Each structure stands twice: as C-alpha cells, then as structure tokens.
UniProtKB/TrEMBL annotation:
GO terms of molecular function: hydrolase activity
Domain AB hydrolase-1: residue ranges: 5-238
Keywords per UniProt: Hydrolase
Protein's UniProt name: Alpha/beta hydrolase
InterPro entries: AB_hydrolase_1 (IPR000073), AB_hydrolase_fold (IPR029058), Sec-Metab_Biosynth_Hydrolase (IPR052897)
One Pfam family from the record: Abhydrolase_6
Organism domain of life: Bacteria
Length: 244
C-alpha cells in the first residue's frame, strides 16, 4: 500500500480526482485528494490575498495533521509546477516520490504566470480585471476546450463546467521559493499534451525547464488532453499505481 496526496491544477478541487482516487483505493492504497484554499468545496474561503504560500501551507498541514509519511505527492499543472516542489522542499523527510502530471517544477524565483506566453499573460490579466473583480481568474470555456478530448463523456464535461471556480490570481503571480532539498527526491513526469522529445528539446534553451535536465527523472507518456483525470482516469490511476 502506498500513500498518495493528489493536488489539482487551476479552477479545480479534490472532486476532479474522484475517479482516479477511487481506482487507487480499490487497489488498496491510502489516498488524500485535497481542495486547496478557495477551490472546490472550499471556494467560499477565497480572498484576494489567497496566494501560493496559502496553498503550500494547505498541503504541509495535511501531511502534518494526518501524520503522512513516504508520500507520493502528485500535482497536476499549476500544482505540479509550484506547489509540489515547494512542499517537498520544506518537508522532504515525509515525501517518497514526486509526480508531475503534464507539468514540471519551475525554478526558484519564477511564478506560474511567468511560464505562460506574454499574450496569454495579458489576456488573463484582462480577464481578472474585467470579469474577476480584480483578483480572480475565471474558468476557461470548457465546452470549447473539450473539443480537444473527443472521448470525454458528457456527464464529465457537465461536472467540469458546474464545479470549476475562479482561481485566486495571487496564486499565479507569487514566485516560487526553493532551496535544493526537494531535488534529492525521485520524480516521475506524466506527459499528456506534449511528448518526451519536446521536453528534451526545450531543456537546453528554455530556463523554465532547467530542473528537468537533472538526474532522477522518469517519464511516462499518456497522450491526450491536458486534464487526464477526466479523459483517461483509469490509465492515469494505473500509472500512479505502478509508482508504488
């Protein structure tokens, strides 16, 4: 049996992991899916000052108060880029392995916002200003994006549309602060929207990818949508099970 902590990306809560979590529990594992502050069933707690540090504290407290050890810490997208390495950096003795779902760790001093192209940064900032009360990023047009996942069940899409909530913008603009403690942990990268070859091509030329040039990486390709917990949950759960 392994102990998993599953962290969702932007706009999502613990509910997004339900099919994957149920599968892993059915295989005998201990699974903790977490809604970060302001997300999912904790949407009512969102505030303008809800930032990356708030979300890091969420995870550290879960591990501490549930007395979790040898954790397989899994982060999708935003959570993988900045929350997972930050938690592992501060509590490396409690973590057994890091898993990045269609994501990778950003270097010290970089924010999640800075990883996106300039035009996307400007577009999102305008959405925050005009539709997010100046501090929240509204969910994307899921029905349009779902055209990239032709096998996505209708009920899954409806749940995605109905349960997604705006993302506190400060979580995107807060720079990550890391030492080197987390880099001693083994890591798995599950690639969905881009292949291993593309990652390797970017390692030497894109600063944001520099941590992926270090030893200790393993890669698994799961081609499909950026959100594999919705379009390929069984296959994602099988990959996570293999980690154990």
């Amino acid at each position: 049996m392994a102990t998993y902590v599953l962290l969702p990306g932007f706009w999502l809560g613990a509910w997004a992991w339900r099919p994957v979590a149920d599968d892993l529990r059915g295989r005998g594992h201990d699974v903790h899916s977490l809604s970060l502050t302001g997300m999912g069933e904790r949407a009512h707690l969102a505030r303008p000052d809800t930032d990356l540090e708030t979300h890091i504290t969420d995870v550290l407290n879960l591990i501490r108060y549930e007395d979790l050890h040898d954790v397989v810490l899994v982060g999708h997208s935003y959570a993988g880029a900045v929350v997972v390495p930050s938690v592992a950096d501060r509590m490396p003795d409690r973590i057994g392995r890091l898993v990045f779902i269609d994501s990778g760790p950003l270097p010290d001093g970089m924010s999640h916002l800075e990883f996106t192209p300039p035009e996307e940064q400007s577009r999102n900032a305008e959405l925050v200003r005009t539709k997010g009360d100046g501090w929240r990023l509204p969910p994307p047009p899921w029905r349009r994006l779902a055209s990239e996942a032709p096998g996505l069940p209708d009920d899954v899409l409806e749940r995605l549309v109905g349960l997604s909530v705006p993302q506190p913008w400060a979580t995107a603009t807060t720079p990550v602060r890391l030492t080197e403690a987390w880099e001693e942990l083994p890591r798995l990268h599950v690639l969905c929207s881009f292949p291993v070859a593309e990652v390797r091509a970017r390692i030497g030329v894109v600063p944001a990818f520099r941590h992926m040039a270090t030893e200790g990486w393993a890669y698994r390709e799961l081609p499909g949508w950026h959100w594999p917990m919705f379009d390929r949950p069984g296959e994602l759960a099988a990959i996570l099970h293999d980690v154990a």
